From TrEMBL:
<feature type="active site">
    <location>
        <position position="409"/>
    </location>
</feature>
<keyword id="KW-0378">Hydrolase</keyword>
<dbReference type="GO" id="GO:0030599">
    <property type="term" value="F:pectinesterase activity"/>
</dbReference>
<dbReference type="GO" id="GO:0004857">
    <property type="term" value="F:enzyme inhibitor activity"/>
</dbReference>
<dbReference type="Pfam" id="PF04043">
    <property type="entry name" value="PMEI"/>
</dbReference>
<keyword id="KW-0134">Cell wall</keyword>
<dbReference type="InterPro" id="IPR033131">
    <property type="entry name" value="Pectinesterase_Asp_AS"/>
</dbReference>
<comment type="similarity">
    <text>In the C-terminal section; belongs to the pectinesterase family.</text>
</comment>
<protein>
    <recommendedName>
        <fullName>Pectinesterase</fullName>
        <ecNumber>3.1.1.11</ecNumber>
    </recommendedName>
</protein>
<dbReference type="InterPro" id="IPR012334">
    <property type="entry name" value="Pectin_lyas_fold"/>
</dbReference>
<keyword id="KW-0063">Aspartyl esterase</keyword>
<dbReference type="InterPro" id="IPR006501">
    <property type="entry name" value="Pectinesterase_inhib_dom"/>
</dbReference>
<keyword id="KW-0964">Secreted</keyword>
<dbReference type="InterPro" id="IPR000070">
    <property type="entry name" value="Pectinesterase_cat"/>
</dbReference>
<dbReference type="InterPro" id="IPR035513">
    <property type="entry name" value="Invertase/methylesterase_inhib"/>
</dbReference>
<dbReference type="GO" id="GO:0045490">
    <property type="term" value="P:pectin catabolic process"/>
</dbReference>
<dbReference type="Pfam" id="PF01095">
    <property type="entry name" value="Pectinesterase"/>
</dbReference>
Length: 576
């Protein structure tokens, strides 16, 4: 039943919503179906070897699959790995509470500010660990059938990436060294199982191909069964990602859309605050729920939780409808909790709104907007802050005709995020600081995560302009070992240092394992002759750059989700 709901319920954005919506059913009944016909079951041991060979922890992989029998189909092998990962993570749900009790011995005599932040981090860890199960269940459902596993490979790899990033976010929030190490130790082999399961899912198509497994992929049979990063997908004439519906395209194209509710500070709407409007949203609302936020400055901390899927929120303009806050790290708030506006629900679309964090450069990490959800679109929005302005935590995101401003690492995270036709403004940092446009995350090589800046402009603001050569600015730095960042067909101002990229402090190895690339940029800062000589840095050609276009990085088999949201887009390159 769960599989039927997943495959048949919806297309485009609603596909992912349906998957997440049926995970409760998956937990009650996890039946399997090979879906691939006779695939030569006597080859089971060779399947195990093929799946385990590319994993980082081969011995763990082989032990996990030691109970595979001759009647086990290849997709069921993947499901065994997923179930083992779920069991391991579930067994760790009580770890944050356990470590909380051990804080007096692990971290004695902490100042109250540090203690509060540590307690908040461990509380967040409990929720983040629980959220991983949603992504694992969604992947399990889809892997009931080998054809679905291949056709929706980008979906399942994205979900498994998000699963891994939830745990990574948990660890990122625990800054005390002894407590951080205690959490890593307590997570135990669940770390290895997460890594292996992601690799197995990402390489499934290649394994099926190697064994000559014939799959009925319908209209998509013309596509070769290749690994995730080798596949090149089709695109429509408007350049939208493949998951935006016609209805959602119209929503973005229209200046005014009939809303379900109106938010207005002056009392002329249904609610005076965005949070009140969200609280009143019906549970399991069918279709797109539209919230119109009238002009005004809304000083409230907004969180759209994971159950409030498929919201379309629009305002009167990015400089007229503004959500603001000033929570910051210096004041004792964890980075992710500083966000003025945060989204945890898939299918979020936003238009004509502005988001600010006014803490200033002295507040250090201070997020204006955080997105930890899949299939999100932002059209003509504005994100203003200083350090850590826009947190693309996980999922697939498309930003079109937006403005993003900041100083240090002001576009950061592990999402698969494309910023297209955007204006990126570097603000003036403090005199002892540098600026970096991006700080991509990425813990594992097979993750579907990258920050892509396409056909945009990178410029200094007026206050920085006179000091733009003295206060150094870089295109980015690798936050995590497998960070991926690509800048292509973009106008780069002269504020960017000739070397282009900067090492993450104390992590020189990231300069070997990460992936940083530039393709056909223009402007005085686009000259690559003096760029860093890292193994991680590449000046790429068109074929390589194709992997990072909207139609490839943000692809989902279920439909053109960005086009459905109504945002114009360039699916391939600006120049043919």
């Amino acid at each position: 039943m769960a599989k039927k709901v997943l495959i048949g319920a919806v297309s485009g954005i609603l596909l992912v919503a349906a998957v997440i919506g049926v995970v409760a059913g998956v937990r009650r009944s996890q039946t399997t179906s090979s879906g691939g016909g006779d695939v030569g079951l006597s080859s089971t041991s060779r399947y195990v070897s093929a799946f385990c060979q590319p994993t980082q922890y081969q011995d763990t992989c082989e032990r996990t699959l030691s109970k595979v029998s001759n009647s086990t189909a290849p997709n069921e092998i993947i499901q065994m790995a997923i179930n083992a990962t779920k069991d391991a993570i579930r067994s760790k749900f009580d770890v944050p509470d356990k470590i909380l009790k051990d804080i007096p011995s692990l971290a004695p005599n902490l100042p109250q500010r540090n203690l509060s932040m540590l307690q908040d981090a461990l509380t967040d860890c409990k929720k983040l660990l629980e959220d991983t199960i949603d992504f694992l269940d969604a992947t399990y459902v889809l892997s009931n059938n080998m054809e679905d596993l291949v056709l929706r490979s980008n979906d399942v790899i994205t979900w498994m990436t998000s699963m891994n990033l939830q745990v990574s976010s948990c660890l990122d929030g625990i800054e005390h060294p002894a407590v951080h190490q205690a959490m890593i130790k307590e997570l135990g082999n669940s770390t290895e199982l997460r890594s292996n399961a992601l690799t197995m899912v990402a390489r499934a198509s290649k394994v099926f191909q190697a064994f000559g497994i014939q799959l009925n992929t319908g209209a998509d049979s013309r596509r070769r069964l290749l690994t995730h990063d080798e596949t090149v997908y089709d695109r429509d004439s408007e350049g939208y990602p493949t998951w935006l519906s016609t209805t959602d395209r119209k929503l973005l194209a229209q200046d005014m859309v009939k809303p379900n509710v109106v938010v207005a500070k002056d009392g002329s709407g249904n609610f005076k605050t965005i949070n009140d409007a969200l609280k009143a949203m019906p549970a399991a609302y069918p279709g797109r729920y539209v919230i119109y936020v009238k002009a005004g400055v809304y000083n409230e901390k907004v969180l759209i939780d994971k159950k409030k899927i498929n919201i379309f929120m629009y305002g009167d303009g990015s400089k007229k409808t503004i959500v603001t806050g000033n929570a910051n790290y210096k004041a004792g708030v964890k980075t992710d909790q500083t966000a003025s506006f945060a989204v945890q629900a898939p299918g979020f679309i936003c238009k004509h709104m502005g988001f600010r964090n006014t803490a200033g450069p002295e507040g250090h990490q201070a997020v204006a907007f955080r997105i930890n959800a899949d299939l999100a679109v932002f059209f003509k929005c504005r994100f203003d802050g200083y350090q850590d302005t826009l947190y693309v935590q996980s999922g697939r995101h498309f930003f079109r005709n937006c403005v993003v401003s900041g100083t240090i690492d002001f576009i950061f995270g592990g999402g698969a995020s494309v910023l297209q036709n955007c204006l990126i403004i570097v603000r003036r940092p403090m005199d002892n600081q540098f600026s970096a446009v991006t700080a991509a995350a990425g813990d594992l090589p097979d993750e579907n995560s990258a920050i892509v800046i396409h056909n945009s402009r990178i410029r200094p603001d007026q206050r920085l302009f006179p000091d733009r050569f003295r206060l150094k600015t870089y295109l980015g730095r690798p936050w995590k070992a497998y960070a991926k960042t690509v800048v292509m067909e973009t106008e780069i101002g002269d504020l960017i240092q000739p070397e282009g990229w900067k090492e993450w402090d104390g992590q020189p190895e990231h300069c070997k394992t990460a992936y940083y690339a530039e393709f056909q940029n223009r402007g005085p800062g686009a000259d690559t002759r003096a760029r860093v000589r890292w193994p991680a840095f590449h000046v790429i050609q068109r074929q390589e750059a194709q992997k990072f276009t909207v139609s490839n990085l943000l692809y989902t088999h279920g439909g053109d989700w960005i086009a459905l949201a109504g945002a114009p887009q360039i699916k391939g390159f600006r120049r043919a």
